[in-house]
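Lecture notes, part 5. Sequence design as translation. It can be helpful to think of inverse folding as translation between two languages: the language of shapes and the language of residues. The source text, in structure tokens, appears below.
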């Protein structure tokens, strides 16, 4: 295997950190790049791009939401002689009604996907749905640890995907043949409502954790009362809208296609996280 490193952007994030760990477990040289990690990389500072790309053979690209920086980055990657790019994208981007999108995230993702497809490099696109880790590391985590998750999610369901499975698909695409030109839509094995997800976590953690469904108006009012600007509170409610409307409840076959196995269930994720102390109050 070539000793040229694989560049991982967003190397401290949910998927990027796991990609780094899994690559290193395989003995693959990795350049872990982020604003505050081992190798400085900042999407907002194109002066950091060349050093990140120099001598790399392939890259996992985790883009900055709502920006159109992937296209110029890919152009630099071509100039540096990269062979392969795996792009982190998202499910639902082909549906213009997936969610309210005042920040232009969907259009930016579509432009990023087009950029890698047009690059002439070997490319693979990962389109994960809602991360299971949103309950342990993301924006639901503090509420779960506090014992009560209050969201305008209604009884909508999502087929939550474990970030370990996302990383495994990315690592396969970076290190194996047969993934070029593939778009992998990634989900868990079945959909759960927020109530079911929280009940699963509660059982795994061995303590009571509740899900309290709110209306959008109640949710926004609570966040404003806690000191959040109204626009930010409404933006958070928009993020949850696809959960409420069940836009992510469908099950995708990307993990099976890429890895030849079933994705990890939400219950398996919950048990592993609880065993590691992930929901200690």
């Amino acid at each position: 295997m070539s000793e040229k490193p694989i560049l991982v952007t967003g190397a401290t994030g949910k998927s990027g950190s796991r990609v780094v760990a899994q690559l290193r477990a395989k003995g693959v040289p990795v350049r872990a790049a982020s604003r505050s990690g081992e190798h400085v990389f900042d999407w907002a500072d194109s002066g950091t791009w060349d050093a990140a790309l120099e001598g790399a053979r392939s890259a996992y690209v985790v883009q900055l939401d709502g920006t159109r920086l992937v296209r110029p980055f890919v152009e630099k990657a071509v100039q540096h002689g990269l062979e392969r790019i795996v792009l982190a994208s998202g499910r639902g981007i082909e549906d213009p009604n997936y969610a309210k999108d005042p920040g232009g995230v969907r259009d930016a993702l579509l432009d990023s996907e087009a950029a890698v497809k047009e690059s002439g490099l070997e490319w693979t696109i990962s389109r994960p749905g809602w991360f299971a880790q949103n309950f342990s590391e993301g924006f639901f985590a503090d509420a779960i640890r506090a014992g009560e998750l209050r969201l305008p999610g209604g009884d909508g369901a999502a087929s939550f995907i474990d970030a370990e499975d996302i990383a495994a698909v990315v690592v396969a695409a970076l290190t194996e043949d047969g993934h070029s030109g593939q778009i992998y839509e990634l989900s868990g094995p079945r959909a759960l409502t927020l109530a079911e997800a929280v009940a699963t976590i509660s059982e795994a953690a061995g303590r009571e954790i509740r899900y309290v469904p709110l209306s959008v108006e109640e949710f926004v009012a609570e966040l404003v009362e806690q000191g959040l600007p109204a626009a930010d509170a409404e933006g958070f409610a928009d993020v949850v809208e696809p959960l409420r409307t069940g836009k992510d409840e469908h099950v995708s076959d990307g993990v099976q296609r890429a890895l030849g196995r079933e994705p990890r269930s939400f219950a398996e994720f919950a048990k592993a996280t609880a065993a590691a102390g992930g929901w200690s109050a």
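The translated text above is only one of many valid answers, since several sequences can fold into similar shapes. The first strand starts at residue 6 and ends at 8.
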